[in-house]
Amino acid sequence: MSDPQDSTRFVLIGTSHPGNIGAAARAMKVMGFSDMVLVAPRFADVLTQADALAMASGATDVLARARIVPTLADALDGVTYACATAMTPRDFGPPTCAPRELFAELGLGTHRVAFVFGSERFGMSNDDVYRCHVCLSIPTLPEYGSLNLAQAVQLLAYDWRQALGGFPVQPRTVDARRADDAAVQGLLDHWRQTLVNVGFFDPAVPRKLVPRLRQLLNRAQLTDEEVHILRGVARAVDKARR
Question: Which of 20, 45, 133, 171 qualifies as a cystine partner to 149, CB 3.0-4.6 A?
Fold first, then answer.
């Protein structure tokens, strides 16, 4: 069985705006895909145009390895399952499916899959749609289903990547060290004395305030830094009342 990442191709037919090709390359790369094929784009040098390179933004390697071919038949060479993307209903053609439902059923690693996108202005021709095994319909607001080309590429690339297992989420912050029992108790003792000082807490009539505060602090699962902040607040309150 082939690697799904190496067996996924994105085919753009008759694309007119170089920026859309660059943005599509970026959408592919961020989801781990790199096989782009252009069918008769408007500009023969589109892959090296400034707008394409600028919109690729770090995915210029996808543009560098992209291929330009004259027909969809050439683009689908080696593909065993082609997915059209077309918003306009057809009287005849392949079945229409929502991406996630289809991807959940599509045998992973058993097909060389291609996602086929039409031109910005005209979409896919009937003949191109008929050549595909399925027509994908991205669920959108019925009254307005118009998607930018790169947006459509991003949505399908994301859903397909999730079907393949997705990528683990990388932490963007360092896990702070949890405050230990001694630190939490020290904070509680500090606040208890501060509350006495400001007249909020009467030790003679405790009304279970301290144990309730302790439960609150336990639920908060404070970090060392948060304990430091709260003790600083207590010191500021004491200073202000002097």
Answer: 20
Beta bridge partners of 39: 13, 69
For the domain that residue 68 is a member of, what is the CATH number?
3.40.1280.10
Are both 20 and 131 inside the same structural domain?
Answer: yes
Asked whether the whole model's pTM tops 0.90, one would answer no
User: Which residue's entry shows tokens 């289809």?
Assistant: 102
Nearest alpha-carbon partner for 42 in 116, 119, 115, 117:
119
Residue 82 and residue 116: Cα distance in Å, rounded? Answer: 7
**pLDDT tens string 138-180:** 988 888 878 899 999 999 999 999 999 999 988 777 778 899 9
pLDDT in tens, 30-61: 999 999 999 999 999 999 999 999 999 999 99
Do 37 and 54 form a contact (C-beta atoms < 8 A)?
A: no
